[in-house]
Prior knowledge:
- The chain is an alpha+beta fold.
- It has eleven helices and ten strands.
- The strands form two sheets. It has a six-stranded antiparallel beta sheet, with helices on both faces.
- α7 crosses α8.
- The protein starts with 10 loop residues before the first helix and ends in an 11-residue tail after the last helix.
Amino acid sequence: xxxxxxxxxxxxxxxxxxxxxxxxxxxxxxxxxxxxxxxxxxxxxxxxxxxxxxxxxxxxxxxxxxxxxxxxxxxxxxxxxxxxxxxxxxxxxxxxxxxxxxxxxxxxxxxxxxxxxxxxxxxxxxxxxxxxxxxxxxxxxxxxxxxxxxxxxxxxxxxxxxxxxxxxxxxxxxxxxxxxxxxxxxxxxxxxxxxxxxxxxxxxxxxxxxxxxxxxxxxxxxxxxxxxxxxxxxxxxxxxxxxxxxxxxxxxxxxxxxxxxxxxxxxxxxxxxxxxxxxxxxxxxxxxxx
Length: 290
């Protein structure tokens, strides 16, 4: 129940109320011990989301997402939107994802390196590809602790980092040097080395286990992701050429493949979380140690 009114709000209180209603997105680097595995820890809040459908493109990085507000609804293959669990592990994406908010949004998420989540998940990454796995029970204590912070992004990031470090130590996380070298070369847009057929097949098996996508698909995702890094440099065609596409039809095929729409449609429809995620750039962390 509310107590007695405290009198008219002061101007600074009005300003705080406006700020509290604003959309925000923040990213933070993880501590050094986590950097080989975790790309970013990010938070997002939208107290008054539009409710529009948002298209999320693959970026090559699996994520653990804790929803402290109303869960998003995800479009299924039958075209029906269903609420996601309030804590999910999103594996590698190789096809479009369409979601829409069902109420006020507040997220705390941990973006893994492309090959950094295998030991945390505890199973081959291919089993999570294009899936959002329910992690409600596994993260119940973490979510409760995050919720108690009252929407403090810095505090949420620090708490998530401490939790991840505990998970890392308990799980003895490791990096496969061969897979990491290949992922780093891809992120840097360097061509793959020539390999005997047996070595190529061995690498594919390791990618299925550690990444959840083949080297060829991950390379395609990285190229597509680079388009958004150049989208303001002179139009989609120029962005595609700078990202490594030969021509516009080749890029258009990947827009259909990874976003389910044309570049023009996406630019017109982009909103909120989808827009903010697309504006972030995937770059390899030069300081990461295997």
